[in-house]
Design a protein that fits this description.
Number of helices: 10
Strand content: under 5%
Number of strands: 0
Order of helices and strands: HHHHHHHHHH
Low-confidence stretches: none
Mean pLDDT: 94
Structural class: mainly alpha
Distance between the termini: 43 Å
Helix content: over 70%
Largest sheet: none
Radius of gyration: 18 Å
């Protein structure tokens, strides 16, 4: 059953048109009706509403998906989309809390690091945001011209993070 449902969700996602999410939402609604508590159905429906610009509706589905036990890589993606949606809705502190939790569960996620930096920047912590991005570069970009300077990049990241270290909620 789960394999069939996953295949249906994959097919709907593959056929989506980001400029017209109506058909995608319409295709997902019957699956939601039949599987109202299935974590991935909830997540995919949230993502469709999010892409359609209906962030408040998306937020509800993302939160429900997490409550229903979303796991694995789909959980990582949901964290990212949930945190980003909260940021877009102006709920910056909640966004930062989501990214902090997500980075705890998925510390190697480059995408989570980038979006956490966006949330930090939105909350007025530009130094901490830049520090995270510098660390993402040092940790995940492997080029000869950058590798030589990784100690300096990490040192600058540490310095920038220290500038925001005294701010409430700054633990990195």
């Amino acid at each position: 059953m789960t394999d069939l449902l996953d295949a249906q969700l994959d097919s709907i996602f593959a056929a989506r048109d980001r400029d017209n999410m109506g058909p995608t939402i319409e295709a997902l609604l019957p699956l939601h009706h039949d599987h109202p508590r299935h974590p991935r159905v909830l997540y995919e429906l949230g993502g469709a509403y999010d892409t359609a610009g209906e962030e408040a509706t998306a937020l509800y589905f993302y939160e429900q998906a997490m409550e229903e036990g979303l796991s694995g890589d789909v959980r990582r993606r949901c964290f990212l989309q949930l945190g980003s949606t909260l940021r877009n809705l102006g709920r910056i502190d909640e966004s930062r809390a989501v990214f902090s939790r997500a980075r705890g569960e998925f510390p190697e996620s480059v995408a989570l690091g980038v979006f956490e930096a966006l949330a930090l920047h939105a909350s007025g912590h530009a130094n901490a945001a830049l520090a995270i991005l510098l660390n993402v570069l040092a940790d995940h970009v492997d080029t000869p011209d950058l590798n030589r300077y990784k100690p300096a990049i990490r040192g600058n990241a540490e310095y920038l993070a220290s500038l925001d270290a005294g701010s409430p909620g700054m633990s990195r």
